[in-house]
Structures are given as C-alpha cells and as structure tokens.
Amino acid sequence: MSDKSAIEWTDATWNPITGCSKVSPGCANCYAETLSLRFGWSQLPWHPANAEENVVQHPERLDQPAKWRQPRMIFVNSMSDIAHEQVEDAFVGRIWDQMRAAPQHTFQILTKRPARLADLARRFNDPPLPNVWLGTSVENDRWTRRVDDLRTAPAAARFISAEPLLGPLPSLDLTDIHWLIVGGESGVKHRPLDPDWARDLRDRATAQGVAFFFKQWGGRTPKAGGRELDGRTWDEMPLARLSVEAQEGSRGVLTDLAARSGGTLDIEMAAGLERLEGHGP
Questions:
Q1: Quick one: DSSP state of residue 186?
Q2: Rounded Cα–Cα distance for residues 211 and 219 (Å)
Q3: pLDDT tens sequence across 248-265
Q4: I need a labelling partner for 61 at 20 to 30 A (CA). Which of 13, 161, 172, 208 fits?
Q5: Beta-bridge partner residues of 134
Q6: Partners of 73 in the beta sheet?
Q7: Beta-sheet strands, E only, within the chain
Q8: Strands, DSSP E only, in 174-222?
C-alpha cells in the first residue's frame, strides 16, 4: 500500500486484500506474484491450489484512505483481486463502506473476475457511488467476454485494462465503457506488443468517445519502451465523459481531470462544467 504509485493511471494503491491465483494467460508473468514471493508476502506460487493460503484479508488496512486528506486516484487491491472467490462478501462490504466514507477520493477497482464483481456491485454499489470505477482486464480476444459481465455492474464508470495486451481484440465491444487502458508486458519474460493492436484499439476508442490511455510498450522494465504511440502520449481519463449529475455538483473533480488531460477541457467536459454552473441544458 502506498500513497504514491508509479502506475501511470493512478496516484496511490490500497491493499486491504493481498494474494491471488492465476486464471488466464495475462497472469503468467504477474508482477504482484513476483513481488509477493520476492519479499515474502506470499510463501507459495499463485496457483489455484494455494489460494486459500495466499489470499489474505487485512482489516487493519481498511481505514487507510480516511487518513489521506488530499484527493487522489486510488487503485484498490493492486496486489490482489477484490472479486477473488476466497474474499468474503462481508469484507468486500467493509471496503465499500470505506469508499463511501471517502468521497474526496476516486477508487479504481480492477478484476479478472467481473461476473462476481458485478454481483458484489449489485449488492454494495446500487445506486452507484460516483467515486468508484469498476474495470476488468482483457489480454486477448478470448477474454473479451469479461466485458459483457462488467457491463451488468452498476458503476459510475466502467473501464478496461488491455494490459498485458497479448493479441488483437476484434471482438471487443466498447458499449457502455468509459475508459480503455492499453499496455505491453514488462519483465524478463515479457511478450511483445504489436503496434497495430494498440493502434486499432486507440482508433476504435476515439471513434466511440471512449477515453484512451496508452500506458507503456513494455520490455525488460516498464519504462523500457516508453509511452508514446505514433508520436504522442495518450493520457485521457474517463471522468470527463461521465454524467455530470453523478458527480454531485463537483466542479473541482472535473477541473482536476482537465489538469490531468493536459490542462484543456474537451467538448464534453466543457459542457459538463456549463451544466454545473447553470449555463447549459
């Protein structure tokens, strides 16, 4: 857990749960498993048979966001998966209580188990909290079906992390998706990212009004290949595209997102600010 993160699309990480188990090819070279085994946070490889021992709930960490007064983007369970089958529903409810009690922060929840996440969201996030975003990982076309499950979850924002992107995603449907993150794999055993896979997703996201974030090309280290795609950095964030009503009249949130987008407001964000101030429909 850290109040400063090197992950480009977030500010901080919060890990009330640690440990996981592998479910698909994107997990093969999992950075969280590597760190957990290196530093002794997990004693066994993250195979499904070891999940009962590896997945640990940490109630003593639940109040961490309340201690951070400065608003920030918080990646929830960067070292686990909130929707893992070993995580108790009641503990997830306690996590949601903390997010509800910290409206100054924006919480980003990412899972490879979106069917269970959708069930949990219907229980704890309906109506949706405006400061909670729900996402799923998609590494190749076989796993685009995860997005169908994600679409059923009540959420102020839904996002896709296509990282590590291991193949083209011709079947990916971006309907009701607000944000698309794309990135290559990093590490000694990294698998290469074809530039045409990234370009295709960028072009489709742009055409459909979905915010696009290109995180990295990948390589031996995360920064080895840089972050530029066709000569520019893509750092779009999704809040500009959300319903203004869901933001509870918060001009500050939208203004902050403008700063994150390079200091300029896109058309939808500008229209949102006008509505908040009573100058638009």
A1: B
A2: 25
A3: 433 334 434 444 444 333
A4: 161
A5: 109, 158
A6: 106
A7: 12-14, 17-18, 56-57, 73-76, 106-111, 132-137, 157-162, 179-183, 211-216, 228-229, 232-233
A8: 179-183, 211-216
Beta-bridge mates of residue 135: 110, 159
Residue numbers in the chain where pLDDT is lower than 70: 1-2, 240-281
* Alpha-carbon distances of 72 from 27, 97, 135, 186, 261, rounded to whole Å: 27, 18, 18, 26, 15
Each residue of 71-120: pLDDT tens digit?
Answer: 999 999 999 999 999 999 999 999 999 999 999 999 999 999 999 999 99
> What is the end-to-end Cα distance of the chain in Å, rounded?
42
Q: How far apart are CA 81 and CA 176, in angstroms?
A: 22
Which residue, 193, 143, 178, 135, is CA-closest to 160?
A: 135
Q: Rounded to two decimals, what is the model's pTM?
A: 0.86
Residue 150 pLDDT: 98
For the record, the structure tokens of 40 come out as 């002794």
Strands in 211-216's sheet, in edge-to-edge order, are 12-14, 73-76, 106-111, 132-137, 157-162, 179-183, 211-216
Sign of the four-CA dihedral 65, 156, 117, 42: negative
> In this structure, what token pair is assigned to residue 212?
């696009």
Q: How many residues does the chain have?
A: 281
CB 215 within 8 A of CB 200: no
Alpha carbons within 13 angstroms on the beta-carbon side of residue 43 total: 3
* CA nearest neighbour of 173 among 196, 199, 143: 143
> Interior CA angle at 208 toward 129 and 124, to 5°?
15
Place of tokens 């608003």: 71
